[in-house]
Amino acid sequence: MPGSMIAACSGFNINNHVILSTHRYRGRPVNESNIQDYVSELAAKYIPSDLPQWQVTVIPNADPAQPYYILIKVHHLIIAEEDDLHVSEMLLLQDNERKSFVGLQDGLTRATNTKQLSHFVRQPEHISKLLNHVQHLISCRWQQFIYEFESLDTPDGVKAHPDARNLSQLLSLLLIVLVNVALGYWRTRTMRRKWQRRSTGYRNDLGTLQTLYVLFQHELEQRNLSWAVARSALLYSLQPVHIVKTWSRFLWQQLLHHFLLLPYHIYCELLALRDVLLRGQTPYSSTYCARLYLYVPLLLYAQLELCKICYELFKAPRNIYDVLFVQPTKELNILHKKSYAGRKIVSFSRSIDGALLRERHQHLFGQELRESDFSLACLAGAVYDYFNTFSDRAAVPALLNTTCRTISKGYFTDRSADKSEHIGGVVFLQLPLGSPDALKAHQLHEIVERIRKQQIMLYLASIGQTKYSLLTALLPHVLTKIFINFFSYNFPVTITEIYGTADTQFQAAWGQRVQDVLLFRPPQSKTCLSLNLHRFGDKYRLAIMADTHLAPDHTLLTQSFERYMETVTL
């Protein structure tokens, strides 16, 4: 009943956002032969502007082996601005591979690059691992500190600890209060920003000092702290008997840990040293040997990464200028000569088996030529075929300016972490157009290697923009808009590589197996074509989203990609 009252007051109608579509399209049953046209027609339709910009459409399928499709349309600003909203909550997908605990050695071994397609730029992983370990250590120590000194009521109504009886307990509780006030103020400010963004009529009647005072009073009342309690704790701590007890306890603990238990500690250190030398890990995580084995390599590698970042910062101005203004081709193509409507259409290829691809090339892929280089060469061949259909109106360029980024599988399945962690940075790629062959694959391999050396700071800066909106916060709005329009015109095509582990299997929240997941990233600003190359498990698939004025020839991109991936041998 309360839910229906809220819905009636807000005007929200679930039927406008969750739609069960018909199982027939233009008089024919929906199946693999016409599902692309059906989905493309649904994608081209606008959601009414007076409704929240998201919609879920369930499309029944005539094939009993694949009972239905689910099309989810959501505005990209909803995902970007709502920090608490994850894509997985709309997809209702779960990750069966997610670990329930974090070990000491997690992340110390370098992951292989096979799960990611081009693996454009390696992020500074050791610095983030060191920060994560330190953060985890601080969190554990803080929870232990709270458990020892906190005096809140337990669920049965009995205090876990008495009120502050001495100066040590008093100072500990005050520290907990100050930390909770700071965290509470941060959460309050974040919530107020969300309310201001969602409602133009929202007013904040409390200032910063008033908010801090209210939070401080609440924490003091919750822990029964007052001037009387503080005075009593101070007087009790100054009593001679208490001082003698405190010093006696302190000396006994020092004697116990540093003299009586010294042989046991040495024995544990020797066991930890043996495990580290023979097995590379040890269960004695509290020993000095285990801590040195964990943190010394992390510190060394983190310092090396920091030096490399400083060196890249020194080279950044010249590299950024070359990448953005010198290297991009000045050739015009058919995309520059078309006018665009802003409505979007889609197309997607069949699933292509990566095992058959490797079998056809007989272990050709390695360090000199990667499987991802071949897939990009096939993608370049598909774009070349599309441009070649308009060769009478515009010459086919030798190079095409594109922007590329990667998205990992966790973007679709993770519900707890920061979703921006699964989104890689942006790099600028001059895609060599032409039929895929060994020369084109090696050329792409060299281009990707040059990107890894030259575009590190651009990659990291774009990650900072994705996570914290750094660039838009530093640059004026007008200048930001000019830059976006300029680069989106000169880089009209975006390539997104979506990847997962070798044994990726999607499963719905209710336990049903999901055959496949496709992401259609919309082209924004003056970009008109978005190419989304998926590799989940050992399957390749291309999904494109384009402006409606590129139809009906946009399907040539997916058809050519299928043909090249299944027939071309280097």
Automatic annotation (TrEMBL):
Q: Which InterPro entries match?
A: O-acyltransferase_WSD1-like, O-acyltransferase_WSD1_C
Q: Where are the transmembrane segments?
A: none
**Annotated Pfam families:** WS_DGAT_C (PF06974)
Q: Where is the O-acyltransferase WSD1 C-terminal domain?
A: 425-566
High-level lineage: Eukaryota, Metazoa, Ecdysozoa, Arthropoda, Hexapoda
Q: Name one GO molecular function term.
A: O-acyltransferase activity
Record's superkingdom?
Eukaryota
Please give an example of a GO cellular component term from this record: plasma membrane
Know the name of this protein? Uncharacterized protein LOC111602487 isoform X2
Q: Name one GO biological process term.
A: triglyceride biosynthetic process
